[in-house]
Specification:
By secondary structure, this protein is α+β, with helices and mostly antiparallel strands. The protein is 27% helix and 29% strand. The chain has a five-stranded antiparallel β-sheet with strand order 4-10-9-6-5. A three-stranded antiparallel β-sheet has the order 1-3-2, covered by helices on one side. A hairpin with a 3-residue loop joins strand 5 and strand 6. The radius of gyration is 17 Å and the shape is globular. It starts with 10 loop residues before the first strand and ends with a strand.
Length: 215
Amino acid sequence: MIENLMPSSVACVHSFTDRFDTPLFPQEEAVIARAVAKRRAEFTTVRACARDALAKLGHPPVPILPGERDAPGWPDGVVGSMTHCQGYRAAVVARAGEVAALGIDAEPDAPLPDGMLESIARPEDLAALAALPTGGPAWGRLLFSAKESVYKAWFPVGRRLLDFQDASVTILPDGTFTARVLVPAPHLLGSPLNAFSGRWTAGNGLLLTSIAVQP
């Protein structure tokens, strides 16, 4: 699914089932030494996807360790993003000279828990959701996913926590969305990194959102 949302310069790998065919590095094992089985499966599978994606770029297997705010650490010269939810794991990577930033997120196509939409949505987000057609995907959950993708693309450059209320997102029914970060933004490629264009898709009971910032 995720490859349909990304430009050809991005290497994408996903899995609908848990994978244990690619062993973890000792440094990665140390991260999840006390993890429950569900967390271990997510961690292991998404790193198997990431290593397969890196291989498409010609990179040998390397440890992918969580860093600040759990953002994955990629090899020099690589940008990437990972996501996992029930029944889906995915990783995307690209050469930094071809793509400046990446963010992906997967969520179940189901309504948000009661009260959660009000905590993540700004008034303009809610107005945009109200204009969307009925009978579509879980629009509130899609908004949550889009904001997660914004954060994942923004944090490696901004290096600071971005709250859900710090970004305004407009989802369009054509499979795209736009976002604007409302806090002081770092510069990337000579311009403030405060506006994003993204894509989304729904299928197999899942919602996927993606952002690829290109030079």
